[in-house]
Amino acid sequence: MTFSPDQLGGAGRAPALLIVDMQYATASRSGALARLLRRTNREADGEYRFNRLEQLVLPNQVRLLAGFRLGGLPRIFVSLGGFSSTCREVAPRLRTLERELANYLGSREYDLLPELSRQQDELLIGKVSASAFTSSGLDAALRNMAITHLYVAGVSTSECVDLTARDAADRGYDTAIVADAVAEDRPEYHDATLLTFAAFFGRVVTADEVLTELSGRLTPIGRSTPISPVATPPERDGMPSRARRAETPRG
Questions:
Q1: Is residue 50 left, alpha or beta, with left meaning phi > 0 and alpha meaning psi from -120 to 50?
Q2: Rounded to two decimals, what is the model's pTM?
Q3: What angle do CA 80, 83, 84 make, to 5 degrees?
Q4: Which of 196, 210, 221, 231 has a Cα-to-Cα distance from 244 of 20 to 30 A?
Q5: In 3-state terms, what secondary structure has residue 3?
Q6: Tens digit of each residue's pLDDT, the chain (251 residues)
């Protein structure tokens, strides 16, 4: 299913879904970060993160992927980690952790979570820094694909998601962080990040709002009615819209 150029959400608007670092290493309770926390008697430090991922973030990312796939809109995954087992090419402040997590290309930790089940027409870009724009060809790929708008999901809210989203906004992309499709170690970090991003860089939206935007603006060729939003999970979270962005979202 494809869209004609003038159906991509209106004239000059070409959206894509960008999913950041949803890998076993740091996004799974069975991954290396969770094992490290258990081994060092800090398992409680990961409870907020992994509960949020399992109960809210992953279900919403699956819904977002379904909506973008249905509409034939671009979906892009970016992954953090080494391109070699030494991780020497990773940014210095991240290198020791990525090496300790054995998060490098070809390892299980580097793999995307199976719930997201990347398809062959979905781009996968590796990075060795927190921001996907700093150390990858993401910007060139987006411009070659004529993407103008980004919806950003993934981990962690205050680091890789935030830095990638800020860099996108700084490069002229209309950028929105999907509040209930991102996760963080602590709720206060999550809340502060979203408040700052909404105040200065772009929008903070929910998965429901993204799917509503798509359903209202995108009609695939050969269909007489817009796409229907994918059913919402029981729990909702995050800042609802730019109109209410002064409110503190609750994790």
A1: alpha
A2: 0.84
A3: 130
A4: 231
A5: coil
A6: 343 434 444 434 689 999 999 999 999 999 999 999 999 999 999 999 999 999 999 999 999 999 999 999 999 999 999 999 999 999 999 999 999 999 999 999 999 999 999 999 999 999 999 999 999 999 999 999 999 999 999 999 999 999 999 999 999 999 999 999 999 999 999 999 999 999 999 999 999 999 999 887 554 433 333 444 455 554 444 443 333 333 333 33
Burial of 168 (0-12, 13-18, 19+ CB in 10 A): buried
Name every residue whose Cβ is closer than 8 Å to that of residue 128 and which is 6 or more positions away in sequence.
80, 81, 82, 83, 89, 90, 91, 94, 135
* H helices present in the chain, as ranges: 24-27, 32-39, 47-52, 58-70, 92-100, 138-144, 162-170, 187-200, 207-217
Only one residue has tokens 């860089």, namely 201
Contacting residues for 56 by C-beta, under 8 A, at least 6 apart: 180, 183, 233, 235, 237
For β-strands 75-80 and 15-20, DSSP reports them as: parallel
Domains, in order of start, for the chain: 15-244 (3.40.50.850)
Give the other-Cβ count within 10 Å of 243's Cβ.
Answer: 7
Instruction: Give the burial class of 132: count Cβ atoms within 10 A of its Cβ; 0-12 exposed, 13-18 middle, 19 or more buried.
Output: buried
Q: Are 65 and 75 contacting, i.e. CB atoms less than 8 angstroms apart? A: yes
Amino acid type, 180:
D
Strands 75-80 and 149-155: unpaired
Closest CA relative to residue 21, chosen from 105, 99, 79: 79
